[in-house]
Protein backbone atom coordinates (compact mmCIF):
# COMPACT_ATOMS: atom_id res chain seq x y z
CA UNK A 1 0.00 0.00 0.00
CA UNK A 2 2.81 2.38 0.84
CA UNK A 3 4.43 1.61 -2.51
CA UNK A 4 1.23 2.54 -4.37
CA UNK A 5 0.99 5.77 -2.37
CA UNK A 6 4.56 6.72 -3.32
CA UNK A 7 3.92 5.91 -7.01
CA UNK A 8 0.71 7.94 -6.88
CA UNK A 9 2.61 10.94 -5.43
CA UNK A 10 5.37 10.63 -8.06
CA UNK A 11 2.77 10.56 -10.85
CA UNK A 12 1.10 13.60 -9.32
CA UNK A 13 4.39 15.46 -9.18
CA UNK A 14 5.15 14.52 -12.79
CA UNK A 15 1.75 15.79 -13.95
CA UNK A 16 2.23 18.97 -11.92
CA UNK A 17 5.70 19.54 -13.39
CA UNK A 18 4.33 19.00 -16.91
CA UNK A 19 1.51 21.49 -16.35
CA UNK A 20 3.93 24.01 -14.83
CA UNK A 21 6.34 23.60 -17.77
CA UNK A 22 3.54 24.03 -20.30
CA UNK A 23 2.34 27.16 -18.50
CA UNK A 24 5.86 28.62 -18.46
CA UNK A 25 6.34 27.89 -22.17
CA UNK A 26 2.96 29.49 -22.91
CA UNK A 27 3.94 32.60 -20.95
CA UNK A 28 7.26 32.85 -22.81
CA UNK A 29 5.52 32.49 -26.18
CA UNK A 30 3.03 35.21 -25.23
CA UNK A 31 5.88 37.58 -24.38
CA UNK A 32 7.64 36.71 -27.65
CA UNK A 33 4.44 37.35 -29.63
CA UNK A 34 3.90 40.64 -27.80
CA UNK A 35 7.40 41.75 -28.81
CA UNK A 36 6.33 41.48 -32.45
CA UNK A 37 3.04 43.28 -31.96
CA UNK A 38 2.26 46.30 -34.09
CA UNK A 39 0.05 47.78 -31.36
CA UNK A 40 2.53 50.60 -30.74
CA UNK A 41 1.97 51.90 -34.29
CA UNK A 42 -1.13 53.55 -35.64
CA UNK A 43 -1.57 51.40 -38.74
CA UNK A 44 -4.55 53.51 -39.80
CA UNK A 45 -2.15 56.40 -40.47
CA UNK A 46 0.59 56.45 -43.06
CA UNK A 47 3.10 59.26 -43.45
CA UNK A 48 5.65 59.69 -46.22
CA UNK A 49 9.03 60.72 -44.90
CA UNK A 50 11.75 62.12 -47.13
CA UNK A 51 14.83 63.30 -45.32
CA UNK A 52 18.48 62.94 -44.45
CA UNK A 53 19.89 59.97 -42.53
CA UNK A 54 21.43 61.07 -39.23
CA UNK A 55 22.43 57.56 -38.12
CA UNK A 56 21.64 53.87 -38.45
CA UNK A 57 21.28 51.64 -35.39
CA UNK A 58 21.98 48.03 -36.49
CA UNK A 59 20.09 46.44 -33.59
CA UNK A 60 19.72 42.72 -34.38
CA UNK A 61 16.03 42.73 -33.41
CA UNK A 62 14.92 45.80 -35.33
CA UNK A 63 17.33 47.94 -37.32
CA UNK A 64 16.47 51.63 -37.00
CA UNK A 65 17.24 54.42 -39.42
CA UNK A 66 17.09 57.92 -37.95
CA UNK A 67 15.96 60.53 -40.47
CA UNK A 68 15.76 64.35 -40.29
CA UNK A 69 12.91 65.39 -42.62
CA UNK A 70 13.43 67.78 -45.51
CA UNK A 71 10.96 70.59 -46.14
CA UNK A 72 8.55 70.37 -49.11
CA UNK A 73 10.99 72.36 -51.28
CA UNK A 74 13.57 69.63 -50.46
CA UNK A 75 16.27 72.20 -49.87
CA UNK A 76 16.34 72.49 -46.05
CA UNK A 77 16.27 70.19 -43.03
CA UNK A 78 13.45 70.69 -40.52
CA UNK A 79 14.57 72.03 -37.13
CA UNK A 80 12.68 72.67 -33.90
CA UNK A 81 12.27 76.03 -32.13
CA UNK A 82 15.68 75.57 -30.45
CA UNK A 83 17.42 74.97 -33.77
CA UNK A 84 17.85 71.23 -33.16
CA UNK A 85 17.14 68.69 -35.89
CA UNK A 86 13.72 67.06 -35.78
CA UNK A 87 14.61 63.37 -36.12
CA UNK A 88 12.26 60.49 -36.84
CA UNK A 89 13.19 56.91 -35.89
CA UNK A 90 12.12 54.43 -38.58
CA UNK A 91 11.93 50.86 -37.34
CA UNK A 92 12.80 48.18 -39.88
CA UNK A 93 13.07 44.41 -39.82
CA UNK A 94 15.96 42.76 -38.00
CA UNK A 95 19.45 43.81 -39.05
CA UNK A 96 20.13 40.60 -40.97
CA UNK A 97 16.92 40.93 -43.01
CA UNK A 98 17.58 44.63 -43.62
CA UNK A 99 21.13 43.77 -44.73
CA UNK A 100 19.71 41.38 -47.35
CA UNK A 101 17.74 44.40 -48.63
CA UNK A 102 20.96 46.44 -48.73
CA UNK A 103 20.11 48.54 -45.67
CA UNK A 104 23.29 48.69 -43.58
CA UNK A 105 25.28 51.20 -41.58
CA UNK A 106 27.84 51.48 -44.39
CA UNK A 107 25.22 51.57 -47.15
CA UNK A 108 23.36 54.49 -45.55
CA UNK A 109 25.95 56.85 -44.11
CA UNK A 110 25.04 60.13 -42.45
CA UNK A 111 23.73 62.57 -45.06
CA UNK A 112 22.09 59.97 -47.33
CA UNK A 113 18.70 61.16 -48.59
CA UNK A 114 15.92 58.56 -48.26
CA UNK A 115 12.16 58.20 -48.63
CA UNK A 116 9.95 55.73 -46.76
CA UNK A 117 6.33 55.31 -45.72
CA UNK A 118 5.79 54.86 -41.98
CA UNK A 119 2.99 54.10 -39.55
CA UNK A 120 3.55 56.58 -36.70
CA UNK A 121 3.91 55.69 -33.05
CA UNK A 122 0.63 55.99 -31.15
CA UNK A 123 2.30 57.89 -28.28
CA UNK A 124 3.05 60.91 -30.49
CA UNK A 125 6.84 60.56 -30.47
CA UNK A 126 8.69 61.10 -33.75
CA UNK A 127 9.00 57.53 -34.90
CA UNK A 128 7.22 54.79 -36.72
CA UNK A 129 7.37 51.41 -38.33
CA UNK A 130 8.13 50.85 -41.98
CA UNK A 131 5.62 48.03 -42.31
CA UNK A 132 5.33 46.97 -45.97
CA UNK A 133 6.50 50.30 -47.40
CA UNK A 134 9.25 50.62 -49.95
CA UNK A 135 12.51 52.21 -48.85
CA UNK A 136 14.27 54.37 -51.44
CA UNK A 137 17.71 55.99 -51.49
CA UNK A 138 18.40 59.05 -53.64
CA UNK A 139 21.72 59.28 -55.49
CA UNK A 140 24.40 61.13 -53.46
CA UNK A 141 23.63 64.83 -52.96
CA UNK A 142 20.57 64.61 -55.22
CA UNK A 143 17.36 65.48 -53.38
CA UNK A 144 14.02 64.96 -55.09
CA UNK A 145 12.18 67.83 -56.77
CA UNK A 146 9.91 69.91 -54.51
CA UNK A 147 7.07 67.79 -53.10
CA UNK A 148 8.52 64.59 -54.58
CA UNK A 149 10.28 61.60 -53.05
CA UNK A 150 13.40 59.53 -53.83
CA UNK A 151 11.43 57.04 -55.93
CA UNK A 152 11.04 59.81 -58.53
CA UNK A 153 14.77 60.59 -58.84
CA UNK A 154 16.78 59.09 -61.72
CA UNK A 155 19.40 56.74 -60.32
CA UNK A 156 17.58 56.16 -57.01
CA UNK A 157 17.75 52.65 -55.56
CA UNK A 158 14.99 50.58 -53.97
CA UNK A 159 15.83 48.54 -50.88
CA UNK A 160 13.45 45.69 -50.20
CA UNK A 161 10.00 45.02 -51.52
CA UNK A 162 7.25 47.57 -51.73
CA UNK A 163 6.47 50.98 -53.12
CA UNK A 164 5.90 54.26 -51.36
CA UNK A 165 2.31 54.19 -50.12
CA UNK A 166 -0.24 56.94 -50.48
CA UNK A 167 -0.14 58.98 -47.27
CA UNK A 168 -3.32 59.09 -45.20
CA UNK A 169 -2.21 62.17 -43.27
CA UNK A 170 0.31 64.98 -43.53
CA UNK A 171 3.37 64.29 -41.46
CA UNK A 172 3.61 66.58 -38.42
CA UNK A 173 7.12 67.95 -38.80
CA UNK A 174 7.24 69.86 -35.55
CA UNK A 175 9.78 72.45 -36.55
CA UNK A 176 10.97 75.09 -38.98
CA UNK A 177 12.81 74.62 -42.25
CA UNK A 178 16.26 76.14 -41.97
Structural summary, described in words:
A hairpin with a 6-residue loop joins strand 1 and strand 2 (64-69). This protein has a 5-stranded mixed barrel. The protein is 22% helix and 23% strand. It has 2 helices and 9 strands; from the N terminus they run αββββαβββββ. It is globular and about 85 Å long. It has 178 residues and is α+β, with helices and mostly antiparallel strands. It folds into 2 domains: 1-37; 47-177, no CATH class.
Summary of the model, kept short:
By secondary structure, the chain is α+β, with helices and mostly antiparallel strands.
Biggest β-sheet description: 5 strands, mixed, barrel
Q: What is the CA-atom radius of gyration, in angstroms? A: 24 Å
The overall strand count is 9
Order of helices and strands: HEEEEHEEEEE
Number of domains: 2
Strand order of the largest sheet: 1-2-4-6-5
**Which stretches are low in confidence, meaning pLDDT under 50 for 5 or more residues running?**
17-35
- Oligomer state of the chains in this structure: single chain
Provide the helix percentage: 10-25%
What portion of residues belong to β-strands?
Answer: 15-25%
The computed structural class is: alpha+beta
* Overall geometry: globular
Mean pLDDT: 83
Q: How far is the first residue's CA from the last residue's CA?
A: 88 Å
By DSSP (H or I, 4+ residues per run), the number of helices equals 2
Amino acid sequence: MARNSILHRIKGLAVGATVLSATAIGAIMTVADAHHSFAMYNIRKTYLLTGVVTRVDPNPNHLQVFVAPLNEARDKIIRDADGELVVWAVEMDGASRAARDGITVNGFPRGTIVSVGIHPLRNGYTGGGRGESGFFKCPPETPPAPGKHCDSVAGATSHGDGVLPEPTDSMPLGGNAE
